[in-house]
Write a structure and sequence with these properties.
The structure holds 2 protein chains of 2 kinds. Chain A is 36% helix and 16% strand. By secondary structure, chain A is of the alpha+beta class. Chain A has 2 domains: 78 residues, Ubiquitin-like (UB roll) (Roll); 70 residues, [2Fe-2S]-binding domain (DNA polymerase, domain 1), CATH 1.10.150.120. The longest helix of chain A has 14 residues. Chain B folds into 3 domains: 171 residues, Aldehyde Oxidoreductase, domain 4 (2-Layer Sandwich); 202 residues, Aldehyde oxidase/xanthine dehydrogenase, a/b hammerhead (Aldehyde Oxidoreductase, domain 3, Alpha-Beta Complex), CATH 3.90.1170.50; 251 residues, 2-Layer Sandwich (Aldehyde Oxidoreductase, domain 4), CATH 3.30.365. Helices cover 27% and strands 24% of the residues of chain B. The chains are: A alpha+beta, B alpha+beta. The structure holds FE2/S2 (inorganic) cluster (2 copies).
Chain lengths: 164, 793
């Protein structure tokens, strides 16, 4: 058994206060305590990237962070970023290019892609492949995901459609 | 009903056949609104965690659960003996696999555990974390027993017996032959021989296995939310094993995070969860964590195959002989059995080629390791690698380029229908046309010139080819004929509601391959409506007609055809109603854009919404002898062939660093023929995803066991899967030979990539190493194995 901790944080723009066992991971806190089930867990040991969320503007692995660590922080998940429209062009490109099959990796992949675009706005296919290599996808073989991200990078840079 | 003319579906005004429409149901997933099993929370739900055997083989002595039971938050602790009262054992054999044996398997064993990872005690608590805490308090007196782990010695007289009652460790032996192989080898011009090793690997669905069983004792009904791919099959199995009437068992498989065959099987921890729900009378959730997945999800591919090929002076195959050995773990998996991979290898090896004399022998043995069973492209990667690896060796021996060797030996495109040497009936394949297309796509001659030029600079690039076939649209031969309640038939119920919306309910399921989109495309085409006016229901035994689910690349070919026929029948019924309302012949009417129009025009006579509303609410306007039937069901199964084959050819281009042994995949090409293509983008992405899974098996994936039967790399950090940076871009092209076994003409494409990629890579690696006199024959091909082949280790 572990003792409880009280957490107050802004989650997708809403202030939340909860008491949870101190050992609760951020991913489990989001999924089970806040019912934000768009954040997935694929390994719970920091390898697959399915649990990727944003804390204070940076992407982190929700399974490697404790919920207690987000006390006072700002957390954004796929639900919040969908509602705000921040992911809209990525989501449209993923849909158009069928850059998801089962969709289990997708929320984490979208978060990783948005960070890539923010930090490397000139990234080409090679850089995209390297950046998303912390996010496993077992269905697509990655190429469609790379294509979709490349399309958004070109669009945001004012270019036309990407070459597929 | 009157006969209404039906243009070929390609020519229909609302034809969606052959169009890359995006998947409407993908939007939910993109917004994080998918509902996977672990996302579901039910009132009073408890969580089960299984204490698993830490030994490969051990007697289970006294179990002391008292401290665990007393732990706060624990609802129950259940042993194998206690669970046995709620759950019957099962036997994973099929009656048509002659001589096969496998002992009864229990959801949890009572006195002996037979692999590391076998669930032994169930701890049920208010949360998963509490269940795990309490599990640490369960005390089991283990008495370790000698373990049989090496398949090569499992049949030795002094091998430990996995099941003493069986007398030996043999599960099954099979043989397929035609002609006189021995006689031909004796006087053969040339013989090439090789032993290929395929390592055990596993599926690693990103969503692990999971199940919630919700039993309501008041009405005796059970609802199971299952991360699965065959809900009707699981309905039958769960009901039978826990002794409930089948109709009281509802199985829902909605959003599923990857399946790849791995989620089509009967797992003991899942059956136990269903039995526990019955026992406790409340919902029980089981979600495998990743460490549990590695020791309990099925493994596959652990085969050693020795193959020999006899060739004539002019480079023609005269005889092909293979010997296969596999170890499948302690039980054959229920209900599909664990011998089908071997069965496939015996029947599929060399099927691309004209082979006058053929013999294939296989032995399947029990061992104390995790169970093996069907995973995407069952047997195909092995059969294709053996065929294509030997084809390249034979080409070399005959002094022919691999392309020329294939041209001389591949079955002629105009030779169908025919039979393969193994006896497999072949309906219509296009090996030569596919090869021709591939060579153009990849610029084969240009790559060969480049290869030559770079070798002079000490750069070692390789080009590997692999012609392949893929078994799709299976009939009952695999499973149903052998007594398993696995359906090869699927039904589609399609209806027109008064809103004007078409709803198609179907027994095939969605795990991301695009099933619902493909069904909507066919339904829209068949009826004559825009696709956004079609809803598709899948994955719920209460809502869809009985069906087989998705496995064996059957969704488009079987589910698509059932939908086409149902849609056409509904169209006929709609036009019968329309003709009565409009006082004209049905044959003079058509349906375009959800409107009844005069045939050959787009002039609206009545919208489907108005017609359906009239047929429901204003039936006084109809003649008394016309009963509108705006719901119809049609079924489809493949007849005339045991299954329908797709075919194709792949090529791999790669570079080897001879100092480090590292392999860089430069590019990959696939030309495949799955007949009529309903949605080209979905097919291409199935192929790409399949190729990458094949590349995983070829280069990275390996369940590494110690001699004692302990899995040494059962976590995601140590078990390598393909990542984006390592994967090449994959060019996909098509040849189309529609199957004549259906009107739609679609064959499967889901396993083609996985089936062919490992062979192409192995051949490319050996092509690169050839000038250095080195060869590799074992997968995964690691940098270490390359360096060993080069004599540098
Ligand atoms: S679940 Fe966090 S990285 Fe896999
Ligand atoms: S789409 Fe299934 S894991 Fe990426």
């Amino acid at each position: 058994m572990s003792r409880d901790v009280e957490i107050t944080a802004r989650i997708n723009g809403e202030s939340v206060t909860k008491r949870v066992p101190a050992r609760t991971s951020l991913a489990d806190f989001l999924r089970y305590d806040l019912e934000l089930t768009g954040t997935h867990v694929g390994c719970e040991h920091g390898v697959c990237g399915a649990c990727t969320v944003r804390v204070d503007g940076d992407i982190v692995r929700g399974c490697l962070m404790l919920a207690a660590q987000i006390d006072g922080a700002e957390v954004e998940t796929v639900e919040g970023l969908s509602a705000s429209g921040e992911l809209a062009d990525l989501q449209a490109a993923f849909l158009e290019r069928n850059a998801l099959q089962c969709g289990f990796c997708t929320p984490g992949m979208l978060l990783a892609a948005s960070e890539l675009i923010a930090t490397q706005p000139g990234a080409g296919r090679k850089e995209i492949r390297a950046f998303i290599s912390g996010n496993y996808c077992r269905c697509t073989g990655y190429e469609a995901i790379v294509d979709a991200i490349e399309t958004v990078i070109k669009q945001r840079n004012g270019g036309g459609a990407a070459n597929g | 009903m009157a006969d209404t003319p039906f243009l070929s579906f390609h020519d229909r005004p609302n034809s969606y056949i052959g169009r890359s429409v995006p998947r409407p149901n993908a939007k939910r997933l993109l917004h994080g609104r998918g509902v996977f099993v672990d996302d579901i929370k039910l009132p009073r739900m408890v969580h089960v965690y299984f204490v698993r055997s830490v030994h490969a083989h051990a007697k289970i002595g006294k179990i002391d659960a008292s401290r665990a039971e007393a732990h706060p938050g624990v609802a129950a602790v259940v042993t194998g003996a206690q669970l046995a009262e709620y759950c019957k054992p099962w036997v994973g054999t099929l009656s048509h696999l002659e001589g096969m044996k496998s002992p009864p398997q229990r959801a949890m064993p009572i006195d002996r555990a037979t692999w590391q990872g076998e669930p032994v005690v169930a701890v049920i608590a208010e949360s998963r974390a509490v269940a795990e805490d309490a599990a640490e308090l369960v005390e089991i007196d283990w008495e370790p027993l000698p373990a049989a782990t090496d398949m090569k010695t499992a049949l030795d007289a002094d091998a430990p017996l996995v099941h003493p009652d069986l007398g030996d460790n043999l599960c099954w032996r099979g043989e397929v032959k035609s002609g006189d192989v021995d006689a031909v080898f004796k006087k053969a011009h040339r013989v090439v021989e090789e032993t290929f090793v395929f390592a055990r690997h596993t599926g690693v669905t990103l969503e692990s296995r999971g199940i919630i069983a919700d039993y309501d004792p008041s009405d005796g009904r059970m609802t199971v939310y299952h991360a699965g791919q065959a809900p009707h099959n699981m309905q039958a199995i769960f009901a039978e094993q826990i002794g409930m009437p089948e109709p009281d068992m509802r199985v829902i498989s909605k959003d599923v995070g990857g399946a790849f065959g791995l989620k089509a099987h009967t797992y003991s921890d899942e059956v136990a969860t269903v039995a526990l729900a019955r026992m406790l009378g409340r919902p029980v959730k089981f979600i495998a964590d990743r460490l549990e997945s590695f020791v309990s999800d099925i493994h596959a591919r652990d085969h050693i195959v020795t193959g020999r090929m006899a060739i004539s002076k002019d480079g023609k195959i005269e005889a092909f002989d293979i010997d296969d050995l596999t170890g499948i773990g302690p039980y054959s998996m229920f209900p599909r059995t664990s011998v089908i991979e071997t069965y496939q290898i015996l029947n599929l090896t060399g099927v691309q080629y004209v082979i006058p004399n053929y013999r294939a022998r296989g032995a399947v043995v029990f061992q104390n390791k995790n169970m093996m069973c069907q995973y995407r492209a069952v047997g195909h990667p092995i059969a294709t690698t053996v065929s294509e690896g030997l084809a390249d060796l034979a080409a070399d021996a005959a002094g022919l380029d691999p392309v020329e060797f294939r041209r001389r030996n591949l079955m002629a495109d105009d030779s169908y229908p025919t039979k393969a040497a193994s006896g497999l009936p072949l309906e219509g394949l296009s090996h030569h046309a596919s090869l021709d297309k591939l060579l153009i796509l990849m610029d084969y001659d240009g790559l060969r010139r480049e290869q030559e030029a770079r070798r002079r600079d000490g750069v070692y690039r390789g080009i590997g080819l692999a012609s392949f076939i893929e078994i799709t649209n299976p009939g009952p031969l695999f499973y149903g004929s052998g007594g398993a309640r696995v359906s090869a038939t699927d039904g589609c119920t399609i209806r027109l509601d008064p809103s004007g919306i078409i709803t198609a309910a179907i027994g095939i399921t969605e795990q991301g391959q695009g099933t619902e989109t493909m069904i909507a495309q066919v339904a829209a085409t068949a009826v004559g409506v825009p696709m956004d006016q079609v809803r598709v229901l899948t994955g719920d035994t209460d809502k869809s007609p009985y069906g087989g689910g998705v496995w064996g690349s059957r969704g488009a070919g079987i589910g698509g055809e059932a939908t086409l026929q149902a849609g056409k029948a509904l169209r006929g019924n709609i036009l019968a109603v329309a003709s009565a309302i409009l006082q004209t012949e049905p044959a003079k009417l058509d349906i375009v854009d959800a409107k009844v129009v005069d045939m050959g025009t787009t002039t609206e006579r009545i919208s489907l919404a108005d017609l359906a509303a009239l047929a429901q609410f204003r039936t006084g306007d109809l003649p008394d002898d016309l009963q509108p039937e705006l719901v119809v069901t049609r079924h489809f199964r493949v007849t005339g062939y045991p299954f329908v084959l797709s075919n194709g050819v792949q090529a791999s281009h790669l570079e080897i660093d001879t100092n480090t042994g590292f392999i860089t995949l430069l590019k990959h090409w696939v030309v495949e023929d799955c007949g009529t293509i309903i949605n080209p983008q979905l097919v291409d992405e199935q192929v790409r995803g399949g190729v990458v899974q094949g590349l995983g098996g070829a280069l990275y994936e390996h369940c590494i066991y110690s001699d004692e039967g302990q899995l040494l790399n059962g976590n995601m950090a140590d078990y390598l899967v393909p990542m984006a940076a390592e994967m090449p871009d994959i060019v996909v092209g098509h040849v189309s030979t529609p199957t004549k076994t259906s009107e739609l003409g679609a064959k499967g494409a889901g396993e083609a990539g996985t089936g062919g990629a490992p062979a192409a890579v192995l051949n490319a690696v050996n092509d690169a190493l050839k000038p250095l006199g080195a060869r590799v024959t074992a997968q995964p091909i690691t940098p270490e194995s390359v360096l060993r082949a080069l004599g540098k280790l």
